[in-house]
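Service request form, structural biology core

Requester: graduate student, group of Dr. S.
Request type: structure prediction, single chain
Budget code: on file
Notes: please return the result as structure tokens.

Sequence provided:
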Amino acid sequence: MIKRAFDVVVALLALALLWPLMLAAALAVWLDSGRPVLFTQQRVGLGGRTFALYKFRSMVVDAAARGAGTASAGQPAAWYSTARDDPRITRVGRLLRRSSIDELPQLINVLRGDMSLVGPRPDVPAQRGNYTAQQWALRHSVRPGLTGLAQALYRSRATPEQRLQADLEYARHHGLLTDLRILALTVVQLLRRSAN
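Core staff response, request fulfilled:
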């Protein structure tokens, strides 16, 4: 209950502070590549239930039809990720991804209870085959998050194995103090990335 209350309060404050940035991002997407501004995708949440995740669209409108480059080099195709040089990513999309601004609409997912501020990043349903039954159950025993232990430690450089181990570690030992540390580490990672 405390974690959920913390999520709601921080998400409301973040939306109140960041709405001008989100409006500017939406306008930039629209001017660069038209509508829709938001991208929605089915992801897996608490208890294995699916929900619609929101992001600012960072790819061309017909990205799914083009279907190329959805897996980073060296990773199994079932691990959902996008190569940095994927030609479907728009000019504005590259900037939004680099700064993680594309993730801000997920604050709405947090308010809806689909997600938490901190937790394992939400899977796409096709990733089910990457886990044992025990790993899947443990990973989805907590709400997925805007950021997680893997993102705080590795940013986008984590291997699938590192992400999995970090997610399982969080699921076993999560708590409000752990969340605060992960949020602080995530901010540091974002600042470092922006400085480079």
